[in-house]
Amino acid sequence: MTTGQDLELVSLTKRYGEALAVNRIDHHFRAGSYACLLGPSGCGKSTTLRMIAGHEAPTDGSIVLGGSDVSWMPPARRGTAMMFQNYALFPHLTVIDNVAFSLKMKGVEATVRRKKASAMLDLVDMVRYADRRPDQLSGGQQQRVALARALITNPQVLLLDEPLSALDPFLRIRMRAELKRLQRELGITFIHVTHSQDEALALSDEIVVMNNAVIEQAGPARNVFNRPRTEFVARFMGGHNVIALPQGHFAIRSDRVSLTAATQGRLDGQVTGVEYQGGHVLLTVRAAGDQEIAAIVPEDAYFDKPMQQGADVGLSWDDSALHPVAV
Ligand SMILES: Nc1ncnc2c1ncn2[C@@H]1O[C@H](COP(=O)(O)OP(=O)(O)OP(=O)(O)O)[C@@H](O)[C@H]1O
């Protein structure tokens, strides 16, 4: 079920004095989709999110939600809600009062807001903790409360700024599955800021990769991963080499590069690193032109014919695995 509305960023720009944090970005977020804004530190993703939320005014450009320009509307009237990295729960209020807080501000009557808050806690499986205070909850539980508190306003778009970064790795994987479930169930648009490629790949209908205040590439997760358009995207998404060949620069997945006997491949080189990674072995080869190329070899294949650091090898691939990239 899709109940959200399309969100459009039109030439959206933010300057802080001389510094350009977001530089004329255009993007259309489809209603009811899960989008991740992904990029290295300082690329402008949080600033973009804060402008969508209304916590930061654009220097130029506009934000259009469901056909209406909301660029200058106060946050509470936009149809968006934000979940912050540190959850920003009120320490002195119980869980249920935290969730009901925004309804109280709107003057909603006590029994009605408790009923609605209770329904939200049910959605995130936290009803039994309704009377605890935030400091009596684990990080994962606090996160669920923060989600319920954001969702009680019935937003069209939920904005999440690094929502999983405070959790330990095990809980992070569990909570990301919960986020995805919730988004599917509610049918609203989620825009999630992260600098984790794994998180973006696991969650996104669409990944929007930012770098240096602009969008480098956007598209379905598999497209962005398998068809990086620039060297930056190929390297940032990981799992790829960027190889300079006489015909130009090409991205190739490390698991599409195979090793042959020396002089039998496309390029010759020397093994400079061997790393056992569980199901596979990561070999690093220094090839002609001082290029470091990574090859992922399945565990069994590697241990049938193990290689030492310094060994001369050839590198081979299928041409269909090469994708031209801009550098
Ligand atoms: N309030 C501010 N005043 C001045 N400069 C700012 C302000 N907020 C952000 N910036 C600058 O704008 C740029 C983009 O910052 P932003 O927080 O959007 O990046 P980010 O991609 O979210 O990074 P991170 O992953 O580290 O949070 C950075 O260079 C940052 O220093």
Explain how this protein is built.
Residues 7-237 form the ABC transporter domain. It comes from Aliiruegeria haliotis. Keywords: ATP-binding, Nucleotide-binding, Transport. Pfam families: ABC_tran, TOBE_2. This is Putative spermidine/putrescine transport system ATP-binding protein. The strands form 4 sheets. The protein has a 6-stranded mixed sheet, with helices on both faces. A 5-stranded antiparallel sheet has the order 13-17-14-15-16. A 4-stranded antiparallel sheet has the order 2-1-4-5, with helices on one face. The chain is elongated and about 80 Å long. The chain has 2 domains: 7-226, Rossmann fold (3-Layer(aba) Sandwich); 248-324, OB fold (Dihydrolipoamide Acetyltransferase, E2P), CATH 2.40.50.100. α2 (95-105) crosses α3 (110-123), α2 runs parallel beside α4 and α3 (110-123) packs across α4 (139-151). The protein contains 9 helices and 18 strands. The model has no long low-confidence stretch (mean pLDDT 92). It is α+β, with helices and mostly antiparallel strands and 327 residues long.
